[in-house]
Amino acid sequence: KIQDKILQDLQQATYYSIILDCTPDVSHTEQMTFVIRFVKITENEDVVIKEHFLGFIPIKDSSGEGLTEALLKELKERGIPLKNMRGQGYDNGSAMKGKHVGVQKRILDLNPRAFYVPCGNHSLNLVINDAALSCNSAVDCFSTIQEIYNFFSSSTQRWSILLKNVSSLTVKPLCNTRWESRIEALLPLRYHIEEVYDALYEASQDKNLDAFGRHTAVGLVKKLQSFKFLCCIVTWHEILYKTNMVSKLLQKVTNDLQSSIDLLKSVKSFLETMRSEEGLNSVIIDAKELAEKIDVA
C-alpha cells in the first residue's frame, strides 16, 4: 500500500512535521486534512523533503481540545510517535494557533520540541484583510465592485449588455476569505474600465430595463466617475497584484524559510514605496489615465 510505504519512510526518517487544515465537505461534515513532512535520504545520499497527504479526519468537536484529541488518536492509530514531532503548521484560526488552549499549545505541552510555525500565506492574507477594513475608501471601493457584479449578474438581459461591451474579460464577484484573489475582481475595472463604463451607461439608457435597473446603473456610472474611486482601483490593483504573486510563491513546495523572509521583506518595501510621495504620484498618474478613458474631467 502507498500509505504503508510512506509510514515506512517516515519510520526511517524518525522526525517529522505535521500540517493540518479544516474544511466542510459536501455533507457539511467538518474534515481535517492530515499532511506529514519529513526528510528522506535516498540511496544516492540525496536529501529530499517529502510531503504526503495521509487522509481526512472527520471532526465532531472543532475546539482546540477536540481537534487535539482527533490528531492524537490519528497518530496513535498509525503508529506515529508524538515524541518525534518537530513541527506544527496550521492556519491562523484561534482553535489551531490559540496561545493558551489552541492545538499548537496543547501539542507543545505534550512535546516541547514540536514548534509551531503559522502559515505565512494565511498571515499575509489577514494583514491585507485588516488593512482594507481599516480604510473607509477601500471598503467603499470594493463595495462598488461587488455592486457592479451584482447588477449585471442578476439579469440575463443586463449580462448580455455587459458581454456586448466587454468581450475579453467579465466582471467577477469578490472573495470574502482570500483578499489577494480579489485582483480577479479588480482586473476588468483596472484595464477595461471604459468598456464596463459603456455597459453601465448603455444599461442606464436602455428602455427595455425597468426603472429600478436604469436608476441603479445611473448610480454606478456616477461612482465610476469619482476620481477617488479611480485612485482606489489603481492602488488596490498594485497592492493585490504584488501580494498575489508573493502568496503563490509562498505556497511553492520548494520554498524555504529564507526565501519566505525575503519575499515578505520585498512586500514590506513595496508597501512603503506605495505610501511615499513617489507612490502617490504614480497612482495619480495612472488614475488620470483611467479618467481620460471615461471622459472624466
Automatic annotation (TrEMBL):
InterPro entries: DUF4371 (IPR025398), RNaseH-like_sf (IPR012337). It comes from the Eukaryota. SUPFAM superfamilies: Ribonuclease H-like. Residues 7-101 form the DUF4371 domain. This is DUF4371 domain-containing protein.
